[in-house]
Structures are given as structure tokens and as C-alpha cells.
Amino acid sequence: MSLIKSMQEKILGRPSSITEDMVRSALSSIMDPDLGKDIVSLGFVRNVVISGTDIKLDINLTTPACPVKDSIKTQAEVALKNLPNAGTVSVNMTATTRGQVTPAGSPIAASLGQVKNIIAVASGKGGVGKSTTAVNLAYALAARGSKVGLLDADVYGPSIPHMTRPDAPMQSNSNLINPPMAAGVKIMSIGLFAGGDKATILRGPMVSGVIKQFLTQVNWGDLDYLIIDYPPGTGDIQLTLSQTAPITGAVVVTTPQDVALIDVRKAIAMFDTMKVPVIGVVETMSYFVCDGCDKKHHIFRDGGGARVAKEFGISFLGDVPLEPSVATASDQGSPAVVSHPASSAAKAYTEIAGAVASQVSIIHEAYKDALNHFSIVWNSQN
Amino acid sequence: MKPESSLTNAKGPAVRVKSISQMDDRTLGITWTDNESSRFDVVELRRKCPCATCIDEWTHEQILKPEQVAETVRPLKIESVGQYAMSIQFTDGHKTGIYTFAMLRRLAHLN
What we know:
The structure holds two protein chains of two kinds. By secondary structure, chain A is α/β, with parallel strands linked by helices. Chain A has 14 helices and 18 strands. Chain B is an alpha+beta fold. The N terminus of chain B is likely disordered. Chains A and B meet through helix 9, helix 10, strand 17, helix 14 and strand 18 of A and strand 1 and strand 4 of B. Strand 18 of chain A pairs antiparallel with strand 4 of chain B, so a sheet runs across the interface.
């Protein structure tokens, strides 16, 4: 202790010690803007250690991809330093992703039992950049420290293997298939079985069987987020997916022009029918920045995604520009968020990933009491 | 840009099942996530089967006549379908009906 401080203590008396109650009450003014409650009543404040006047604690958020993480940390540090006689303040940010619990005994328990969130990435029509969005969303969540899997459910046009180049070959483990990894993300696709250039020619019921296998016989393990790249449209596969797996929420992808927006309304209506919450709308191919004059060219009109989100009262998650680097990176098997993190497309995807993670936390708060799966055997008397 | 909070649509979160159990020989009980409780007569549920063989897909006319369903019919097994519905396998062999939570709530409010 410095001489000055000990002098002060002699004159003014020992500083009153800081209690855990004081710490909690100081932090109770900090709100989580997504969940609409303060971080103390949400139970985020943990491991409070007070030694003398020094305060050390953890703030445990609901997702490592939380976009307001830094802001909450700063607010907490300021609030603690403002406590009378506060010494050094150390706030450590941690996260436990919230998620659903699939009961043992359900047909999906072996495969999806430890998967906390399943996020559908869908579109009304093809060619809008849905797979590119799914891949970049998966890698952006993984880059922020989440455990992520990516399921390519586009059985007729699997593009995920080409865009990610998963490394290890398949291995069979008891009755489950181990998904190969690509840059830390678990990948599963029919393209891994059929070979890149072979066509998948299957009738509806066969495809449903394949999809069910992906959901019941793949060793997904412990995941914070499983991203499912839906095939375009509103058909058999989409129905099977929503009926077999407890989908946490859906991200709907569209380009800005009317012809795509007509179909995105159908995709939103489909999820609404099956009561899968729509997390929000992502607009791709929003504009092209000219490399000669830096002007934004809205090639496919302007603001369509935001308009349709407003119409349905759902979130607009962000717009992604057309960028040659995104297409090149996809074709080379390395998504933009990994290979070109400084590009505006990669930044847009990272921001979208943060928005998706917060919306997923909100959905869990709303459905925390709901059963995700039930099965009861009737006890008949006759 | 910061997304405004939203779920399925502007109507807010759809109700889901909080708990479900057999109440007596022919009554199914469900408590919903908004804490409303409903009771269903299982014979009535069989008569209201929404599947394509019981209800005409195009005219929505009921094909199944109530008297075709015996008073002794009971479920064998009730299982969730996705997060929006449940299916019931009955003792008369019928199992194709998908009872959406929305439909069950409507039925409960009629009684």
C-alpha cells in the first residue's frame, strides 16, 4: 500500500469494504437490449470475487456472437469503478449459448440431442445466394467462438462441399456417420456421397429418407448452432425438415427485385404455417460498388428486402453487396468471412451473424417453457 | 442497423405445448405456453380428424361421418410433429391426422 494511501486511511478511516450486494446493485442498471431485462436479474453476473477494494467477476452472455458484448463490458466497468473506494475492476466476458433440450428417447436424440439451436436458411426461389449466406453465417458464428455445424439439405443441387471443401473422409461410428470438418465447422451434404459432378436423381419419398437420415443418423455432437441450407421453394424437403427437427428459427434470403420478393413471401408463409419463428430477412446482391468510381449501383433495384421485412413485421438482418471476391472465394472453397474478412460482404455477414445470434436468444426466452418433443403412450382401460 | 425484436410475425410468439398428459380413460390434457389449459375428448378428436381421407381436400367437406367412429376408440400413441402440431395413432388403425396446435386451440375454445 502506498504511503499516501495509508496516510489517507489514518486520517479518513479505512475505506468501507465493497460487498457483493453493492456490486450487483451497481450492475442492475445495465440492460440486455435484446432480452429487455437487466443483466443481474437475467443471472449473467457470476463468480464475483472481492478482495479488499478490487472487484473481479464474469458476465456470462447467451451467445459468444453477442453484438452488444463490448458495450455491456464497458458499462459494467464504468458502473463498478464508480463504486465508492473501488480499486481495480476486472470484468471477464463469457458465454453459454442457450438452447433447446431434446429429451432422451426421441428419434433425433442420438444425432441432435446436444445441438442447442437449429437455424434454417431458406429462400422462395433459387439463385439468390442462399448457400453463400448459409456458409458465411456458419463461419461467422464459428469465428466468434461458437461450435457450428452446416447441413446441406439441397439434395438436388448440393453446393456446400464445393464451397467449403471438407477435409476428412467419412467415418462410421457405431450407427452414426461422423461429419467431416472444414475450418472447424462440421459439414454434411449428399454431395459428399455422390461425388461433385454426379446428379442426384431421386423421387420425393427417397429424398425425405435421405433428409431424415441426416437428422437422425449423423453424429452432430455438441453444437451451439446447426445451420441448415434449405433447398429453394416450399416443397417436400422443407416439410420433412420442419416436421423432423425442432427448428429454432428461419433466416429468409432474397435479392431486392420484385420477382424474388413474391417467392420470399411464400417462404415466410410456409414457416408461419409450421410455426417456425422467422428470425429475419437477408438481402443479397444488394448493390455493386464500381471499382472505377466507388459509386454504389443498385443493379436489382433498392431496398426490397427491408420492405418485405417491414410488411411482415420481422427483422431486416442486413444487406450484402455483390462482390467479385465473394464469388471467387466461394468457388475456391474458402468463404468470404474467412478469406476476405475486410471486404464489405464479409463485414455484412459478420453483422448478420450477430443479429441472428441475438434473435435466437430472444426466441429461447419466449419459448423457454415449451416442450420440443413429446410422445405419450395411451393407457387404455378396454 | 439494429433489428427490432420479432418472432414468427407481428402477432408475437405462437403458443406451444408446455405439458401434455392423459387425464383419464378418454381425456387428454394440454397446458399451453401461455398457461391456458385445455381438455380434449379423444373420441371427439378422432371424429375431428383433419387428414385428407377424413376431410375433402378441395371442398373441405367432412367425409368421415361421426357415427363411423366407435365410442370405444382410443389413442395408442400421441407424438409431436415439428414444433407446431401432433399426430395421434388410434386403436382403429387411423394415424394420418396432423392436429396443429392452432386447430386444437380452436377446438378447445368451441367447447
